[in-house]
Amino acid sequence: MEFIKYRLTSDMLCMGERIKKGTFRPTIRTIPYTQITGALKAVFGDNDIHAVGHLVEDKKHNKVDYLTYSPRDRGIETSKLPLTIEFLTGVLGSIYIVKNEVTKDFAEEFEIRMGAMKSRGFGLCTLKKLTELNDSRPERDRGVLNTRIPEEHLETFGVSGVIKPVYGFLFKPLSDTSGVYVRSLFEGSEIAGPKFLLEHGGK
Amino acid sequence: MIEEEKYEIVVKTKEPFRVGGTKDPLSGAENPVTVVGGRVVIPGPSLKGALRAEVERYLVEMYYDKANEGWPAEKRPLQPCIPAPSLSPDEKELVKKQRYRGDACHYPCKQKCGNEDHMICPACYLLGAQGLNGFLRVPFLYSEVSAGELYSTRIDRAKGVVAESANRRFQVVPDSSVFKGVLTIVKNDFVRGLEFGKPRVLRERTAGDRWLELGEWNTKQIIDKLVLERLKNIKLLGGFKSKGFGGVEITVTRITVPQG
Ligand SMILES: [Zn+2]
Ligand SMILES: [Zn+2]
User: Fold this and answer.
1) Residues of chain B positioned with their CB less than 8 A from the CB of A41
2) Closest in A42, A74, A76 to B100, CB measured
3) Contact B133 A65 (CB under 8 A)
4) Does residue B239 register a pLDDT over 70?
5) What pLDDT is attached to residue B1?
């Protein structure tokens, strides 16, 4: 099992989905399998691509900010009920891509768009290759999961045991406009697996 | 791979802009300038809203039949929608007068659409509709002024312009401040089989990009008339009925990327 580690940076990233009819769009503070894998497939095609990520713990990065804006009333040229977006600024994260025939040739540095509000200036990310984790058995430990992975892909990332699961659902797109929710392991779950999937590297 | 065209957008303020806060109590205008991550910005949503307003206005001025107070039937696909789940009473009036289409563009059509399949209007083609991405990515525009400098700017420039107060809410950026960002147009997305200027091949139920089947618009015209000219035509950001506030001048320049 081999992984390629990239550093992810972004000016502003909103990983949330608007709750139906809500005026507040919250963000999440990790980089789920579905989000990063989908963003990579948008660039490199619907190929055999699998990736997860998490934010780097660092006081200078990943600060939460809010932006409020109002849609316009066409009739009287005033604003309607304002919407608030929660997002992260100065984003620094780590991405782990499963190394295979498709991903081994990815460039040293490239851009992707990830998360919500991509047409409004959010989500432009730069990925820069850092290292390859070449061990056939990456360092493993028990600890707290730092990302979100669909159950069907736990093996792909070398998760060998689920000790205390925290389940949730991730949206898995089937086409540009449709998809299904798949049961997934969320951050905070206790697992046995490679150290890069664990909070504080397993400590 | 995705083939993109990039344009640098430069916004120069013609009047002082107050920073932050949702509304300016003096003019009732929205404040489009705000501080995000310690930087003074015009947020993408504000710019996108202003661009969309210009595109809509252009379409209405171009195609609405003023003499007969209606939208010509053969030009129906060019009628802009109001992209909101529910309409205000004043917006319903605009729909009644046929300046706007009543249903917000969406994809795909569902049972509740009845027998009628809905089209995607030009504004939504460019900027995105419910369930369907557009071809434009509107950026945040950054100022060279940092949030720290802004404070002293206020002391120098704000006197007599906005209420004097030590409160951060009353910071202003002076006129002739410059904001910059890069607009992206997706020209070709080989993965998804999208080509800018062509009707999209959509597999689910929809009337799709009918306006491009009229044969009136080609790629160059769309970029020139519906994107670049419309951006340059934005004279006010944030406020729509504001006075002496929010005035801007916008220039747009194509960025040519060296080969390789
Ligand atoms: Zn529309
Ligand atoms: Zn419909």
Assistant:
1) 191
2) A74
3) no
4) no
5) 72
